[in-house]
Amino acid sequence: MSEWTPKIVAFCCYYCAYSAADLAGSMRLQYPPNIRVVELPCTGKVDVGVLLAALEAGADGVYVAGCLEGDCHFLKGNFRAKQRVAYAKRLLEEIGLEPERLEMYNLSGSMGPRFAEIAQEMTERITKLGPSPLNRQHRKGEVGP
Ligand code: FES
After folding, report:
1. Per-residue model confidence (pLDDT) at position 28
2. What is the pLDDT of residue 138?
3. Domain range for residue 20?
4. 11 lines ligand 1 (CB under 6 A)
5. What is the total count of domains within the chain?
6. Residue 16 maps to which CATH number?
7. Which of the residues in the chain have pLDDT under 50?
């Protein structure tokens, strides 16, 4: 039997988390390879529909990583993202899905080690929760797309 590893989507702001991911790579920091990074011009671009669509499409966990509070290049993008993540978490709870599958983080482009730490933290958290019930490949008797 193969060992299950969670699929995690990270929506990362170009100015911070994406640069931090680059830095983590340059520093040769180890972090789980199951993180799929989606680069955004700002986390203010992410909306509730996108977060839920990622889970519906088979992600077991999703996180948004934006600039430190007060450092967003578009002023309030990361605050908007924070509110949207909080709202999406409430929706997940309402439909019976663990809200912990979704999270918001803030970091700067120089925080390569923190990027690796977040990737590890989310992987451990989602591994504990197990496969998402929305992930077709793990539903009993169903064949994935
Ligand atoms: Fe980074 Fe807005 S520019 S979160």
Report:
1. 96
2. 59
3. 8-137
4. no
5. 1
6. 3.40.50
7. 1, 144-145
